[in-house]
Task: inverse folding
């Protein structure tokens, strides 16, 4: 035991916010102007943190409950936030559909939902290729608005450090509005019927949602009739907790937002409450893993289909050496049809090793395809199938299906095919706005929530 603790102290004493710099770093841009990069890092280092350590600790507690089977995670938002698509309406609509989904799942599944937005910082994108070729012209790939611009010109694709400042400012403004929505009355359960989105108004889910909100409103009236009113009304009914998360990819930015918590003396990456390691940068010896292992935020790790049980155990040991509940969430993204074969051995091994993790399903990133029209899309039926398979695996293994991680928006986009409105390949061009991967629209997201609620209910019964 003493020896184990010593080993742990030794490894952590190696860590500093910049120790990642001596490791191999994949997916980072080559900034031509290194001086500007350093100047920008200094500016961000002097900025206020976007989140507080105490909030990240509270989220970790909630995720600890998920790991123990007592709560369920809903993580959702854009694949990539963008400077152009920034505005109060978009933030409100994504927040609102996440709230609706959470209510549907809490009510149907009788389980608390931990809500996290891929918002207020989800800007940097890993790419499968360094270059993109269009009509015979080859340029560096777009890597997210925090790095370069989507526009297909040589100039636009040059990585510019200045963009980090704009991303920081946009994140601060987004977080400010999210906090106001969560704590300022918008999320009050008494307003549940008003959260209806215009774009879902006439759908079957909208009717199901209306019925559910009537039942909840009745329950609240009953509580009021029993004398639970005004200030006695528990906070949970008037407010909600909402957390932010993004991929820990662009390390110069993340490092510049590391702060020492004055209460515990620990390091936190104050760019978001929760940071995850993406599928392309999950090498235990590389820079991104090195960076996150020393911060105390709750962490996520994407688990793609090629992951072997041994690799996974090694990563878990690196990221959660003390086996703390809530520290690590494994986000499996296997692709529909692959989950039973690929996920079962991993779930089994983690359980055998006695490791405490939360298991979340990302049914988006294993299900990307190119439509005949040339658009990158995902079929809603495949997304649903992967979620169902995820629930099946956990049922078979006797483990807890801990949550879902979705790319979605409150807008009425046409990016994923299928769903109740049965979006077809030829409809994709109508409202295809994503800066990266195709997202579920509001109606598809709500449909997903009802399916999950049914699967959660099945576990309770
Ligand atoms: C993402 O979540 O946007 C992403 C790129 O996922 P992954 O790393 O799992 O491919
Ligand atoms: Co994506």
Result:
């Amino acid at each position: 035991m003493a020896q184990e603790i010593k080993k742990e102290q030794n490894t952590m004493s190696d860590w500093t916010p910049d120790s990642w710099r001596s490791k191999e770093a994949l997916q980072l841009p080559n900034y031509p102007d290194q001086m500007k990069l350093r100047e920008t890092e200094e500016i961000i280092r002097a900025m206020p943190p976007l989140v507080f350590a105490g909030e990240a600790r509270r989220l970790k507690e909630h995720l600890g409950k998920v790991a123990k089977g007592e709560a369920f995670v809903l993580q959702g938002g854009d694949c990539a936030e963008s400077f152009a698509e920034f505005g109060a309406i978009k933030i409100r609509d994504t927040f609102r559909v996440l709230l609706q989904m959470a209510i549907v799942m809490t009510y149907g599944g009788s389980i608390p939902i931990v809500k996290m937005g891929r918002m207020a910082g989800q800007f940097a994108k890993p790419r499968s290729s360094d270059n993109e070729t269009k009509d015979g012209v080859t340029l560096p790939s777009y890597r997210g608005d925090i790095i370069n611009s989507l526009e297909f010109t040589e100039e636009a694709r040059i990585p510019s450090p200045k963009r980090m400042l704009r991303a920081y400012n946009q994140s601060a403004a987004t977080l400010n509005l999210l906090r106001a929505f969560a704590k300022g009355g918008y999320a009050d359960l008494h307003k549940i019927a008003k959260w209806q989105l215009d774009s879902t108004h006439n759908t079957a889910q909208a009717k199901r949602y209306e019925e559910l909100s009537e039942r909840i409103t009745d329950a609240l009236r009953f509580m009021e009739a029993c004398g639970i009113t005004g200030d006695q009304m528990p906070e949970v009914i008037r407010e909600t907790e909402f957390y932010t998360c993004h991929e820990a990819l662009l390390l110069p930015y993340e490092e510049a937002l590391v702060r020492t918590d004055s209460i515990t003396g620990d390091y936190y990456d104050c760019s978001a409450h929760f940071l995850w390691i993406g599928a392309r940068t999950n090498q235990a010896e590389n820079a991104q893993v090195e960076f996150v292992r020393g911060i105390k935020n709750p962490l996520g790790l994407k688990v793609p289909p090629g992951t072997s049980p041994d690799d996974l155990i090694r990563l878990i040991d690196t990221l959660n050496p003390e086996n703390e509940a809530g520290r690590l969430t494994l986000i499996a993204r296997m692709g529909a049809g692959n989950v039973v074969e690929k996920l079962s051995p991993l779930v089994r091994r983690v359980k055998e090793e006695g490791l405490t993790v939360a298991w979340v399903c990302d049914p988006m990133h294993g299900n990307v395809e190119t439509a005949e029209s040339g658009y990158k899309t995902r079929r809603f039926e495949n997304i649903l199938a992967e979620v169902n398979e995820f629930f099946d695996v956990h049922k078979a293994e006797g483990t807890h299906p801990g949550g879902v991680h979705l790319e979605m928006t409150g807008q009425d986009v046409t990016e994923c095919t299928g769903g109740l409105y049965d979006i077809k390949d030829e409809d994709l061009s109508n409202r295809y706005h994503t800066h990266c991967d195709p997202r579920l629209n509001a109606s598809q997201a709500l449909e997903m929530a009802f399916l999950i609620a049914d699967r959660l209910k099945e576990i309770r019964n």
